[in-house]
Amino acid sequence: MDADAIRRAIETGPVAMPGVYDGLSARLAADAGFSVLFVSGFAVAAARLAAPDVGHVALADMAEVTRWVARVATGPVVVDADTGYGNAANARHAVETLVAAGAAGVFLEDQEWPKRCGHFAGKRVVPQADWLAKLRAVIDWREETSHDVYLVARTDARGTMGLEEAMARGRAARSLGVDAVFIEAPERLDELRGIAAALPDVTLVANMVEGGRTPLCTPAELTRLGFGLSVTPLSGLMAATLAMSRAYARLADEGTMRGAEDQLMGFHEFEAVTRLEAHRELERRYAPE
Description:
Elements: H1 3-12, E1 15-20, H2 23-32, E2 37-39, H3 41-49, H4 59-72, E3 77-80, H5 88-101, E4 105-109, H6 128-145, E5 150-155, H7 158-161, H8 163-176, E6 180-183, H9 189-198, E7 203-207, H10 219-225, E8 229-232, H11 235-254, H12 267-273, H13 276-285
Parallel strand pairs: 1-2, 1-8, 2-3, 3-4, 4-5, 5-6, 6-7, 7-8
């Protein structure tokens, strides 16, 4: 799927992206009806390393997960490219690598490396010019190679330098020609409205993190506020983690899930998720005569 699929989807209504972190989560999200998926760096760090989102995940990790997700996705995949893993040249290489792995879009942010979750304390951002250079490098790559990518410019300046600086950075990114602007972690509805008023002529992204700093809104509510794209990066991860922790605790205590099967997906239901019947059909098709 190409970047234009994302642009067309936004033109027809609000686009909500769930966070995914492997093939199984991507399959479940696609089966639920989501047309655009988001590979979350937070979720990849947690699922692969049991680590917080503080810069432990490398480009190679994100590219590998992107390949798994793109393999089962039914629509475009947007990937968290963090800070681009270095300077502007590194950012260009990172985006090229992720697009080759199957990404149709990327988020590229202005934090210092090692970055941290946008809803954590202690963030620091690079000078505006350094971030803009990374965005410009990606835009140049698009133009010079004819490889399209949906480019989301994310700034974390709200938490470190204030909302006015964050909006100034958003305007500067918009002027470069990015597809969307993402001002991370506004803390009130009036801040969301202020962002929309300051940036009326570019697609805006909102990050819906349960327990985070930004008020939770539905896609329809965000559309009314002026936001065309939203991401809910952690719902699936947190739900799966809670379910697994409860199942493992029961197994540790009782040695079996007997009597608690209603807490599990059924065996045959899981066969459908993994498309076992399609695999069996291939086996029948190519079985020796």
